[in-house]
Amino acid sequence: MITERTAVVNDLTTRYLHGGPDGRPIVVFVHEGGFGGCADVSWGSVLPLAAESYRVIAPDMLGFGGTAKITRFDEPPFGFRLRHIYALLDSLGIDGQVHLVGHCFGGSVILRALTDPALRARIATASVVSGTGGPWRTELTSELGTYDGTIQSMRRIEELSCGTFPGFEEYIETRQRWASVPGHFSALASARTPVPEPLRAARPADPYPQTLAGITTPLLLIEGSDDALLEPGWTKHFVQVLPHTTVTTLPAKHSPNISHPERTWQVIEQFIGGTDVQ
To answer: Of 10, 158, 27, 174, whose CA–CA distance to 101 is shortest?
Structure first.
């Protein structure tokens, strides 16, 4: 059974989904970053499957779902969110390594964390569904930011992301409800606010993904064969840097964890179960 819980972490309300038997390896699921995104949206159909064999935790990241609607503008959007997830785990008495699974932006959070020794130290394995860490997105990804608050707009965007599938309309209604939570739209939209030209600072060079070179954390990348939001074959950039990377292609669009949850979890479970860390 998957239950909803709330904790106060660093004085910030943090909602998370929890399930599975105690004493089993822990899998932490990190959701994507679109309007209406949260643990339920990315992983609602996967968690019951995963909880049959693992202890599962799926938090709403800062700015999303039932978690505090805040963001940071003084650093990239990745690290501070994972540090908050780690603080949640600490509050639950979990201070060892966990298996991290991320979808889209959540996958990017995990990939970027692998470049940080302090964050990487707590990752037993990393499974990423349609997340790149930033690069290799197509021009269509700009459509994800055109949400205007209507359910019609949400439906159009999600048809692009995951296509239609049994239960699609219920999924859209759930996502629309989370997008309507006070503060959520502002937290996400504010990150897109343009900075006046005189105040813009030059961005430092970003050698990613070369910064992953030499990392030995087991890595699984899942790509959709019909994904219009990422460049075809984007996973090859990681294999060139990390030859041990496992790559699986599923017959889906950008979000196979939503449209094909059983198959997606089967791939992830096989990967986690095949590693030395359990």
So the answer is: 27
Q: In sequence order, what are the residues at sequence separation of 6 or more whose Cβ sits closer than 8 angstroms to the Cβ of residue 66?
A: 4, 6, 13, 15, 38, 60, 181
Residue 205 lies in a domain: no
Residue-level pLDDT at 277:
63
Q: Identify the CATH number of the domain in which residue 260 sits.
A: 3.40.50.1820
Tokens of 254: 């950008």
Please, which residues bridge with residue 3 across strands? 18
103 is a domain residue: yes
Residues in the chain: 278
Parts of the chain with a pLDDT under 70: 276-278
Give pLDDT, residue 202: 85
Q: What is the span of the domain harbouring residue 98?
A: 3-191+210-273
Pair 166, 45: CB distance under 8 Å: no
Total number of domains constituting the chain: 1
